[in-house]
Write a structure and sequence with these properties.
The complex is a heterotrimer of chains A (211), B (313) and C (554).
Chain A (H helix, E strand, L loop, with lengths): L14 H36 L1 H8 L4 H26 L3 H31 L13 H36 L9 H25 L5
Helix pairs in contact in A: 1-5, 1-6, 2-5, 3-4, 3-6, 4-5, 5-6
Chain B lengths: L10 H34 L17 H23 L13 E8 L2 E6 L4 E3 L1 E5 L4 E7 L4 E5 L4 E5 L5 E5 L5 E7 L12 E6 L1 H9 L7 H11 L2 H5 L17 E3 L5 E3 L2 H9 L22 H13 L9
Parallel strand pairs in B: 1-5, 4-10
Antiparallel strand pairs in B: 1-2, 2-3, 5-8, 6-7, 6-9, 9-10, 11-12
Chain C lengths: L3 E2 L19 H5 L4 H29 L10 H37 L7 H23 L13 H5 L4 H28 L12 H33 L12 H35 L6 H14 L15 H29 L8 H24 L1 H7 L3 H31 L5 H28 L13 H31 L30 E2 L26
Parallel strand pairs in C: 1-2
Helix pairs in contact in C: 2-3, 2-4, 2-15, 3-4, 3-6, 3-7, 3-8, 3-13, 4-6, 6-7, 7-8, 7-9, 8-10, 8-11, 8-13, 9-10, 10-11, 11-13, 11-14, 13-14, 14-15
The chains are: A mainly alpha (211), B alpha+beta (313), C mainly alpha (554).
């Protein structure tokens, strides 16, 4: 087996500083993601304020079961990811790889359930268009935002799965070193962002009109 | 029209030009000052010249910097205050303004007077009379721009926008579309014709029109079944439209809004949106059923119901 | 390796220059050297600059006559749209940050490279892909929405390649964000020992402030474009009034990015001007602290003024008043900078080489452009002149008179450092002066035409506006000629220019301590900084030995 790829790279002279730099960089990137999703949320809010009853009525059509199970899965995956990051710090290689694997599985579970949910939504004619199920025109805006927000979240989640999976697989194959690797911290923070965004989306999509 | 300035043909135009000249004067002073300083310094302190060099004079200290920063900020805020102080009061058209409906569509302007007279790409108005424009678009965003009046307002689909002006000069003035709207945007132009008041009345009377917008609206009111719920004799509990226009309306969610053109339009097209307090949300939507013209005439009809006390059959 | 104090000289590196470190195509296309990436960007943005310039040349040609004889309505609309899209996102936004920022940021702070070199290369590939996507939109028939993509025209009524164009810009946006993240991390984490924040050259502060805006504003543009694409392609209603959608929400989202975007375009230019004026006046900048606070202030307040693009849009009058107020406030830091640059000339030893001519041109043209901003911040005047040529003239004074002048100032100033060659200064000065006159000739008449009432984006226009259009179009061809000169003499210098020494301008700044061109690792020995920037001469009379002409090798 070939030696793992060197972790320290130019222009950094010390690994500790490189890790600090990577963590700093990902936090800056997360700030940009907050604005990315934030503007979508602002749009949602503006339409919600303008059409309160319609949004509440439309919100009742989402599938609470799928939404809640997915939320639980994603939050658990954040836990396993956090454990993986800590385990990598503590040089507990097997625990790290198991937890990274668990994160990937939970993330895949989210996507699979999302797929089933989407199929059900299509069957229930909740895709804005000619055969849309609900009468009120503004309900189509609720669902347009539903599809867009969940799809963009799912894309971010898929990218996250790629990042976590890469660490899991290459870490298992010893192609990359997991201990002291800035990529672990960066991936963990990204994954937590994906989770946090979902936690904000969940009540807006699933808890409308269900209090 | 002078070489540099459009004609001054409205009350607003004179005001806007006043602000413009003041800012021009200020800008000229600042540009001359900056240019003069740059030129003088460039010549006096060019490389190798004999002028005195050395440290900056003591007066150019931190306090000086704070001083000129504060002075600039104060000047900026003063200019803001001066140019804006007339804005809020100029917002709302005078109560007795002549009402004109404007519908924009790719690539033409349709204007309609209160008595129903219609024009295409033209608008006749009387001099020295406030004119209120209530405008909507049938497709993209357009913008109603009359340079001689220093007046411009975007025209949006799905809602009304409003502006007003008072012409002060007779003549014919350019009307331009000022929001890019597709292939023939630059051909979506027209004329504003300002006439003497009696000439305008004669012109208006001579226009072919129906019975007036309000009467057209009354016909639509019956034909579309509005009277089925909203007439006094109806068994359905629906808001009474007599005297409604311009009054405050208490909504189910606690807010109070004014029953203006926008409220009436939204009530016809999106009745679930602002439900009046004490009423069930049972009114069906007329989106796709009423044309823009019909909405305008219905609004004119409902407006006419405010002039009459007592019931209408 | 020992650190070397920067009071004296650094050892001259013996390694080959970064240009010589590999001659294969892949050594360029797979480089992680920030200096090579800067050159990749330079070629890319220059290509797009000329494309955008050709587009508008055709437009100005057609505008010689009021009846639009040269082009059809649709072709004209597509050409001005292409000009705007390409110039804003594929020239102006990347220009100074991605070329000079990339090349100089590590050098100026004494670092070996940026924080994330591979991400840096990826940024370039992103703008290349975005550029291809936008070019596809052009070749497939063009897009005619204007660079502002207003709904519902772009989502429901345009029959052109809106999705491809929007996608291209979307991708380019991520290039911007990645570069911003990289530069912020670099500035925070890779400064050489002794290089504290308030010893940084103003160019570094400018790039830092720009990067903050890029990271925080661009994501909003990204979402806005996604919504337009999704509404147009999948017919999911977002801005469609038929379903209760509000086209004004598009405008709020769009301008929330696009106003800070203009500060992305002007802040780096201000950084360049500070570097050039101090060097060619041989003085420290006047009021360094205030210059820093002004740039940060511009970046922050710039996020709060977007509604001044919407005074006539149907936005509430109260919102308009607030935006007008903040727009007056944001003028103040820019004014302070103009005062301070002017004060920097006082008691200097001023030379008029080409970089300085461009920088002085910036001062005048930016001041004019900025003052016309006050007109536009005044609601009654804006109601009259918005969507007319007055606005077109305003932003071109700042973007072209300002930023492009500064770009050329930087290009000439750092050319010897980047290429190791000196260009013929008389030609450069001639081009600078021709550009200044051509620019004013082109854009000043537009202020007049605008106040007279000529709307923008008009293919045909009433004949009374013709005289101003003729003047403007004639000026545009003078300006075009001026733009064609630098590629010629700069290109000439690459082969026949005198070799530059390490510091032909006798400038301060860490980039001048290393060879011209620098080696791959930038410095032979890591610098250790002991004093602030612009140590051109201490208090007291400037001694003779600082007056070197550009021919002297240090």
């Amino acid at each position: 087996m070939s030696a793992p790829t060197k972790v320290l790279r130019a222009p950094w002279k010390e690994l500790a500083r490189q890790r600090e730099g990577a963590t700093f960089g990902i936090w800056v990137f997360l700030a940009s993601e907050l604005l990315f999703f934030g503007s979508l949320l602002l749009l949602y809010t503006a339409y919600r304020v303008a059409n309160p009853e319609v949004f509440i009525a439309a919100g009742r059509e989402t599938d609470l079961w799928y939404g809640t199970v997915n939320t639980a899965a994603l939050m658990t995956s954040s836990l396993t990811m956090a454990v993986a990051a800590q385990a990598a710090e503590a040089d507990m290689r097997r625990l790290t790889i198991w937890c990274l694997g668990a994160t990937v599985l939970l993330g895949l579970m989210f996507l699979v359930f999302k797929g089933f949910e989407y199929a059900e939504d299509i069957e229930k004619n909740l895709v804005p268009g000619v055969n849309f199920a609900l009468q009120e025109p503004a309900a189509q805006i609720f669902f347009a935002l539903y599809w867009i927000m969940t799809a963009i979240h799912a894309i971010h989640l898929t990218v996250g799965l790629g990042l976590v999976g890469r660490l899991a697989i290459f870490g298992a194959l010893r192609r990359i070193q997991l201990r002291d690797n800035p990529e672990v911290e960066v991936t963990a923070l990204y994954w937590h962002l994906v989770d946090v965004i979902w936690i904000i989306l969940y009540p807006l999509i699933y808890l409308m009109g269900r209090s | 029209m002078s070489v540099f300035m459009p004609e001054v043909a409205s009350t607003q135009a004179a005001q806007t030009d006043g602000i413009y000249f003041a800012l021009l004067a200020l800008s000229a002073i600042i540009i001359l000052l900056v240019t003069a300083l740059i030129l003088v310094f460039s010549i006096r302190y060019r490389r190798g010249s004999k002028a005195e060099r050395g440290a900056m004079p003591r007066v150019m200290s931190r306090e000086f910097e704070v001083g000129w920063t504060s002075a600039t900020l104060f000047l900026a805020l003063f200019i803001f205050w001066w140019v804006s102080s007339t804005q809020l009061s100029a917002l709302v058209a005078p109560k007795d303004a002549l009402q004109i409906h404007v519908v924009a569509k790719q690539w033409m302007w349709k204007t309609q007077h209160a008595n129903g007279a219609r024009e295409i790409n033209e608008l006749h108005v009387p001099i020295d009379t406030p004119v209120r424009l209530v405008m909507t678009s049938e497709d993209a965003i357009h913008s109603f721009f009359v340079p001689a009046f220093r007046m411009k307002k975007d025209v949006l689909p799905g809602r009304y926008t409003e502006t007003w002006f008072q012409p002060t000069k007779l003549g014919v003035f350019h009307l331009f579309c000022a929001e890019y709207c597709g292939s023939e945007h630059s051909r979506m132009v027209g004329r504003i014709v300002v006439l003497q008041k009696d000439a305008y009345s004669r012109w208006l009377a001579a226009q072919p029109q129906g019975d007036g917008l309000a009467k057209e609206g009354e016909a639509v009111f019956r034909a579309r079944g509005c009277s089925g719920c909203h007439a006094e004799a109806s068994k359905v509990h629906a808001p009474n439209l007599n005297g409604l226009y311009g009054r405050p309306v208490q909504l189910a969610d606690g807010r109070t809004v004014t029953a203006d053109e926008s409220y009436l339009r939204d009530s016809m097209l999106m009745p679930r949106r602002d439900i009046a307090a004490g009423y069930e949300p049972i009114m069906p939507t007329y989106a796709g059923i009423l044309t823009e013209g019909e909405i305008i005439s219905l609004t004119a009809y409902i407006r006419s119901l405010s002039g009459k006390e007592g019931s209408r059959k | 390796m020992t650190d070397v104090a920067v009071g004296g000289e650094l050892p001259i590196p013996r390694d080959p220059s970064y240009l010589g470190a590999g001659y294969t195509v892949s050594s360029w296309l797979a480089t992680t050297d920030h200096k090579r990436i800067a050159l990749l960007y330079a070629v890319t943005i220059t290509f797009f600059f000329f494309l955008g310039g050709i587009a508008i040349s055709l437009v100005r040609l057609d505008l010689f006559t009021p009846t639009g004889d040269l082009l059809s309505d649709d072709t004209y609309n597509k050409l001005f749209t292409f000009h705007g899209v390409v110039m804003v996102w594929f020239f102006m936004v990347p220009s100074i940050p991605a070329t000079f920022g990339n090349f100089l940021l590590p050098l100026m702070i004494g670092a070996r490279d940026v924080a994330f070199p591979r991400l840096n290369l990826f940024s370039w590939y992103l703008i290349l892909i975005g550029g291809f996507c936008t070019l596809y939109a052009l070749i497939a028939g063009g897009v005619d929405t204007g660079w502002t993509f207003y709904t519902p025209f772009s989502t429901m009524f345009s029959n052109t390649h809106v999705i491809a164009a929007a996608l291209g810009v979307f991708i380019a946006g991520f290039s911007s964000i990645a570069t911003g993240v990289n530069f912020i991390a670099t500035t925070h984490m890779l400064r050489a020992p002794g290089m504290t924040w308030f010893r940084l050259p103003l160019f570094v502060w400018a790039i830092y402030a720009t990067s903050l805006v890029m990271v925080l504003a661009t994501p909003v543009l990204a979402i806005t474009l996604v919504l337009v694409i999704v509404e147009r392609w999948l017919h999911l209603p977002i801005f469609n009034p038929e379903f209760g959608g509000d086209p004004l929400l598009f405008q709020h989202l769009f301008w929330f990015y696009s106003h800070p975007a203009v500060y992305i375009m002007v802040l780096p230019a201000m950084g360049v001007v500070s570097e050039v004026i101090t060097c060619f006046a041989r003085r420290r900048v006047f009021g360094y602290d205030f210059m820093v606070y002004a740039m940060v202030g511009i970046a922050v307040i710039g996020f709060l003024v977007w509604g001044h693009h919407m005074f006539v849009s149907g936005q509430s009058a109260y919102a308009s008043i607030v935006f007008s107020f903040l727009s007056f406030v944001v003028a103040v830091p820019s004014a302070i900078k103009v005062f301070n640059w002017t004060a920097t000339l006082y008691r200097g030893q001023i030379g008029f080489e080409a970089p300085m001519l461009y920088a002085l041109g910036f001062l005048g043209l930016f001041t004019i452009g900025g003052l016309t901003g006050l007109f536009l911040a005044s609601i009654p005047i804006d109601v009259h002149v918005t969507d007319t040529y007055f606005v077109v003239a305003h932003f071109h004074y700042i973007m072209v008179g300002g930023t492009v002048s500064a770009y050329f100032a930087g290009l000439h100033y750092w050319w010897p450092k980047i290429t190791g060659r000196l260009y013929p200064d008389p030609w450069a000065r001639f081009a600078a002066i021709l550009m200044f006159f051509g620019f004013n000739f082109t854009f000043f008449p537009q202020f007049i035409a605008g106040y007279l009432g000529m709307p923008r984006r008009y293919h045909v226009y009433p004949p009374e506006f013709q005289v101003y259009n003729v003047l403007s179009s004639a000026g545009a061809f003078v300006l075009a000629a001026a733009y064609l000169l630098p590629p010629l003499y700069l290109g000439w210098s690459l082969i026949w220019g005198t070799r530059a020494g390490r510091n032909p301008w006798n400038a301060t700044g860490l980039e001048w301590k290393t060879s011209s061109p620098p080696p791959r690792e930038n410095f032979a020995a890591p610098p250790h900084v002991e004093e602030g920037p612009y140590q051109y001469h201490p208090e007291g009379f400037a001694p003779e030995r600082h007056y070197r002409s550009q021919g002297d090798a240090a």
